[in-house]
Design goal:
Blueprint: H1 3-6, E1 10-14, H2 18-29, E2 33-37, H3 41-45, E3 53-54, E4 67-70, H4 79-86, E5 90-93, H5 94-102, E6 110-115, H6 120-133, E7 138-142, H7 148-153, E8 158-162, H8 165-169, E9 178-181, H9 189-192, H10 195-203, E10 211-215, H11 219-226, E11 231-235, E12 244-248, E13 251-254, E14 266-270, H12 279-295, H13 299-308, E15 317-322, E16 325-329, H14 336-343, E17 349-353, H15 363-369, E18 373-378, H16 383-393, E19 398-401, H17 409-420, E20 426-429, H18 442-463
Parallel strand pairs: 1-2, 1-4, 2-3, 4-5, 6-8, 6-9, 7-8, 9-10, 10-11, 11-12, 16-20, 17-18, 17-20, 18-19
Antiparallel strand pairs: 12-13, 13-14, 15-16
Helix pairs in contact: 6-12, 6-13, 10-11, 17-18
Length: 467
């Protein structure tokens, strides 16, 4: 279904959030008759200016609907989507709609796509920065915030597209120029039902891709890439083989996009050019460089783009340092795999963790980082699960629990962590879990951590007579 096909057609948009608004506006602009539904009547009312018909709480499509475009978070088991499929009405997501529309443009944008459990937003941010350093009319879009359909209709030359497993589930014809699965670990199992289904959704980014970029250090990335044709490009954190990007001493090296990879290698950047620091972000930088090089970006642009990149908030951000103790906010580490990358970046850590694990196991994480832990402070609904894992795999590590009734749990957590820490340690918020049991979002949680750190440091300064 293209922009021409949409004229006069009846389309139901499921979900009135950011994506739903963009889809409704785009469809109206293409001459479609648009209905939007959402269980939240208040949020639905905010779309009154789109000209769409607003109907709260639909559980089946109205008569005459030709297409349903769902917001990514809606589960396949949602009654409305089940009823639409049973009635023979096609259900697609916003990414699929954007792709179909893009293919009918006089000059479709080039799609460079990033998915994986962790590092997606950092990687597309790096990729956008590299592309812009090259002089391309590029934008980061998708799960990073800007709906893909808005980016397509804005006329950008190349898109750095972050794709969640939800978005990939609701597409069928996406064929990107270059795609990568950064890594894969247990996450969103409550949505997908199993790790295999989650992985299958992620692996769809490789379907029909001209360049299939894989993380050689991640089993799932390698397995999923092997199921697809295209030019395969690997990246690794050690010396690259032919057809790969990697690291030699302190240099990021390309042995894939060179004239004679058997005999040639080119320098892309240095480890010092990568921010935030840490092995997981070096891997993100290599993935971004591989996608950019697949587009034809110069080595100079890779270096300039990485240097210009500004990391997003709540991603391993230094908050403060006091009495030789550093405080780092990685609230975006919302699953064990993400927390592992953060914890492995520091030799001695007091770890603040806890929240909603969403069915994920923390045993491997705790076992892997036990030797780095000075102490652990736990809060949130699944604190007991993490506590049990620590008892099994790090029994000598001191553990404190923040009581559920604390009025200001993050202040209590930071105070407990500070009491455990010694000079040279890092107090690290890397929860390994989602935040909605206690906070509006991971950003709200990260802000609470930063505020608690600053407040306690000010109290310490007051105790010592500092002004």
């Amino acid at each position: 279904m293209t922009s021409r096909d949409l004229t006069g057609r009846s389309v139901l948009v499921a979900g009135a959030g950011v994506t739903g608004r963009s889809v409704a506006v785009a469809l109206k602009g293409m001459g479609a008759t648009v209905t939007v539904t959402d269980a939240n009547a208040e949020r639905l009312a905010e779309l009154a200016d789109t000209g769409a018909e607003l109907v709260p709480g639909l559980t089946e499509p109205p008569a005459g609907i030709d297409l349903v475009v769902t917001s990514p978070g809606w589960r396949p088991s949602s009654p409305l989507l089940v009823a639409a499929a049973a009635a023979g009405v096609e259900v697609i997501g916003e990414v699929e709609l954007a792709w179909r529309i893009a293919q009918r443009l006089p000059k479709p944008p080039v799609w460079l796509a990033v998915t994986g459990t962790n590092g997606k937003t950092t990687t597309v941010g790096m990729l956008e920065s590299i592309l812009r350093a090259h002089g391309a009319n590029a934008v980061a879009c998708g799960n990073v915030g800007l709906p893909v359909i808005d980016a397509v209709l804005a006329g950008h030359e190349v898109l750095a597209v972050e794709l969640s497993s939800f978005q990939l589930h609701w597409q069928s014809s996406l064929r990107v120029h270059a795609g990568v699965v950064l890594n894969l670990a247990e996450d969103h199992l409550d949505w997908h039902g199993s790790l295999e289904h989650y992985a299958h959704a992620k692996g769809a980014v490789y379907a029909g891709a001209k360049f299939v970029v894989r993380n050689t250090g991640d089993d799932w990335s390698t397995r999923l890439a092997a199921e697809h044709d295209g030019t395969h490009v690997g990246f690794r954190l050690d010396t690259p083989r032919i057809g790969e990007l990697g690291v030699v001493e302190d240099l990021l090296i390309d042995r894939a996009f060179v004239g004679d990879p058997a005999n040639n290698a080119v320098e892309l950047a240095t480890l010092a050019d990568v921010r935030p620091a840490g092995p997981h972000n070096v891997a993100n930088a290599l993935a971004a460089a591989a996608l950019a090089r697949a587009y034809g970006v110069s080595t100079d642009a890779v270096r300039a783009g990485l240097r210009a990149f500004v990391p997003g908030a709540h991603r391993a951000v230094p908050v403060a340092e006091s009495a030789g103790i550093a405080y780092v906010n990685d609230s975006k580490a919302t699953n064990p795999h993400a927390a592992s990358g953060s914890l492995r970046s520091f030799p001695s850590v007091v770890w603040i963790a806890g929240g909603q694990l969403k069915g994920a196991s923390v045993d491997d994480l705790v076992s892997e980082v036990a030797g780095r832990l000075r102490g652990v402070v736990l809060l949130g609904v699944d604190a007991e699960v993490i506590s049990g894992s620590l008892a099994r795999h790090a029994p000598d590590v001191r553990v404190e629990r923040v009581a559920p009734g604390d009025d200001e749990p993050m202040i209590a957590a930071v105070r407990a962590a500070r009491a455990m820490a010694r000079s040279g340690d890092v107090v690290l918020l890397a929860p390994a879990a989602a935040s909605l049991d206690m906070y509006r979002s991971y950003a709200h949680r990260g802000d609470a951590f930063a505020e608690a750190v600053h407040r306690l440091i000010q109290e310490d300064d007051g105790d010592t007579g500092a002004s």
